[in-house]
Amino acid sequence: MSPTIRPVRWNGAVIAALLSVISMAVELSIRICSEIMFDPLPDTVAVFAYGLIPLTLLLNVRLLRSAEIPPERLRVLHGAAYAATIISIVVAALYTFSFLVLMPLSLIAIMFFGIGFCAWSPLVNLIVLCHQLQALKERRRLEEITLSPLSNAAAVCVSALLMIEMVAAPIITGQAVREAMTVPAKRAAAVTRLQFLHADEALLANSGVSHPSFWFLMGSDQFSSIFSSFDDEDWQEKPKGEIDAKALYYLVTGRSASTAPPPSGRRAALGNAAEDAAWEQDMAVEETGGTKVGHPARGLLLASSELNGTLTPDRESAACDWIMEFRNTGDQPQEARADILLPEGGVIDRASLWINGVERSAAFGSTGAVREAYQKVAVVERRDPLLVTSVAPGRVLAQCFPVPAHGAMKIRLGMTAPLQWRDPAAPALAFTPPILEDANFRIDRSLRHSMHLEGKWSQGSGRLSGAPQWQIEDRGDLHTASLLLNAKETRTPPALTISGGPAPQAGDKIGSDRVRRVSPFAPPAHPVNLVVLIDPTVRVGEAMGSERQRELRAALAALPAGSRYLIANSRHPERGSTGWESAGAPIPDDDSWWSDLHYVGGLDSMGALEWACGAAKARTTPSAVLWLHDTKPDSVCDVDTLKTAKGSPIHHTILVGVRCGAGEDAVMEAIANDHGVYALSATTSHAMENAVRLAACAATAPSNTAEIPLGGREPAVNGLYLPPNVSDGDSVSAASRVLATWRHAASTHNERLAASKLAVESHIVTPLSGAVVLETKGQYQEAGLNAPAPAAVPEPSGVAALLLGALLLFWQVRRRRPA
């Protein structure tokens, strides 16, 4: 006689499963718990682990209520149900412990507001699952079912893996985060552990972007933050030696948390694009009117790009206009921001924005005045301004708002720059086009960046030449060059040269206000001691490929006889250096020192930079430091202390910084106006060769106080100098005078005010001045700026409309005229 099988009630199990599904749906859709407490579903594993609970509950109900199941299937189903139930009990127990402290608070919320049931879901699930486990055991006993050992093994293994993934790993990560942030002596080891654990997502959450998991908070001793706002400002005031969460994210990943992509985790797995879009829109609103490029804006792209210019080799200068049109495919207005690298010695002296089809020119004012006006109009009034400011000499930040939803916005940036002398063996003047170094918009795949340059000069002054992409025509005295670049090539446009003309000589007079005191190809006056400091970070590793290493080796070997160099690793400069080597002999390609460099994460290089500058200053002959570094967010470097520590050797050493990668460069920007500091970009051609030569020439250049060097610092661009008190209104000359004052440490407040006034009157963008386009004359008057003369020429489409209207009117008059 077979045993009697009693039916099992299903009401409680179905209610528990329904409550689990509702809890998951609420959290995944509006993230209520992760916004105010901790993130209960931080990744895909957690989502599927908790999603197993309602499936197990319903499976058990089905199995326990079925009276007749074939014996061959019954053993398999019981084995699967047993394993799933054990795993679900483990998951429910973990979540019950996580929400245990919140249950009393949820009771209050249930009584007064009718919400808070989700906090009780894990406990309800745990009780029902334990009851079902007992019922399954009773069913197996009655039907004499023996489980396969595979079921027990599966239950134990999966439960153990979930414990490791959901509990142990977050706790270990949290402990490593706590040590890295608060214990300087253990920071390096803790950062290494975090890199091994691939803790990017947890660190990004800990940076204030979202909230970490409960177990991460337990490991990092941040459990009290569950009951706080967890605002990122709480992390800003740190005792000496501690760092904040954003600085730690950079040290581990080599990327800035300010420009990191939105946390993926469960949203990437579940395809929740709407949540990513909301996150990106929040970032876009928060960063509007800011001073950094920031996060990429969803749906914002560069739709067209056109650069037109004029070359004047007799003046060794070029003037060009860069017209860019942005398109917004999103549903919200966006601000377009771009960090633009100008040709060396170049300056922005024109800017305009198209408003309602009419081009409006920019007004120039002090940096503070134009930024305040822009923020008021863009952030507060949400109108149509354009702002151009100087990040550092040779770099500008252009930003315009709003690019309307499903609309477009067009701007023009005008610049003047010196043509650069290249190649002493075959002297040629080179024009290096401006580069989009960083931007919060993407470049449309179909974009073709158009460049057209032309000029009139005699054949004896040289002929145009360049890369094969350039379409060059020399017709008598008229010379033209055109180029089309695809989206990928836009960030690395090739240079254009004028070769075959007269070679530069000391004593040349260029125009009415420039005299060449030294040849641009003159070697360093004396042997130099060069400290090459290399940050072994992710971005430096990406930029310093084998070709760049060979270029740096060749440049070091070409230093003047008697020169010496030292190459040091920023992670441990004293024991990770090559020692002082003599220049003049080529460095072997199989140098073991280079192969021992491990490029990983980010690095706070302030201590290593102090050491390198101290090592350079300790030499008795002229010396300089060449620093190859990645972008440094201000959260990782104590730039405020650096600015005030005037006794630091960093402020008294020739320093050439080569930035690898795009983004914020807090250290170089903090010391940009020091007399002997030069900021270069690794994206330019011959970057290593130019950097080594610049460092050697700057270290041995004679200080010239009677005349002003072109570019505002020694060595002068092309060896050209300006008389101290005479200016012919040229933009490059005016910028040189402004920068010379800006860089001079002994300049007084009145001298800086005079330099700012000169910049505004000369209509140039410098660290002391900027350009802004506003919409109305009243806005200019309110900002204390002189409104530019209104442009009277409408867009070509407007001209066409006027002509068409005139023709229609003429036709109507002709029709009505009697025969």
> What is the helix fraction of residues, given as a range?
40-55%
User: Number of DSSP strands?
Assistant: 29
Q: Can you give the mean pLDDT? A: 83
Structural class label: alpha+beta
Radius of gyration: 33 Å
Give the DSSP E fraction (strand runs of 2 or more residues). Answer: 15-25%
Tally of helical runs: 25
> What quaternary form is this?
single chain
- Spatial shape: elongated
Q: Which regions are unreliable across 5 or more consecutive residues at pLDDT < 50?
A: 226-237, 265-271, 791-801
Q: Alpha-carbon distance between the termini?
A: 118 Å
Can you walk through the features of this model?
By secondary structure, the protein is an alpha+beta fold. Helices cover 40% and strands 21% of the residues. The protein has 25 helices and 29 strands. Helix 14 (367-380) crosses helix 24 (777-783) and helix 22 runs antiparallel to helix 23. The chain is elongated. 47% of the residues are buried.
Layout: helices, strands, pairs:
Elements: H1 11-30, H2 32-36, H3 44-65, H4 71-99, H5 103-113, H6 121-143, H7 149-182, H8 187-197, H9 200-209, H10 214-219, H11 245-253, H12 265-270, H13 273-287, E1 300-312, E2 317-328, E3 334-341, E4 347-355, E5 358-361, E6 363-366, H14 367-380, E7 386-392, E8 395-403, E9 407-418, E10 420-422, E11 428-431, E12 435-439, E13 442-443, E14 449-456, E15 463-466, E16 471-475, E17 478-485, E18 496-499, E19 509-510, E20 514-516, E21 529-534, H15 538-543, H16 546-557, E22 564-569, E23 581-582, H17 592-595, H18 606-617, E24 623-630, H19 639-644, E25 655-660, H20 666-670, E26 677-681, H21 687-700, E27 708-709, E28 720-722, H22 731-743, H23 749-761, E29 769-773, H24 777-783, H25 796-816
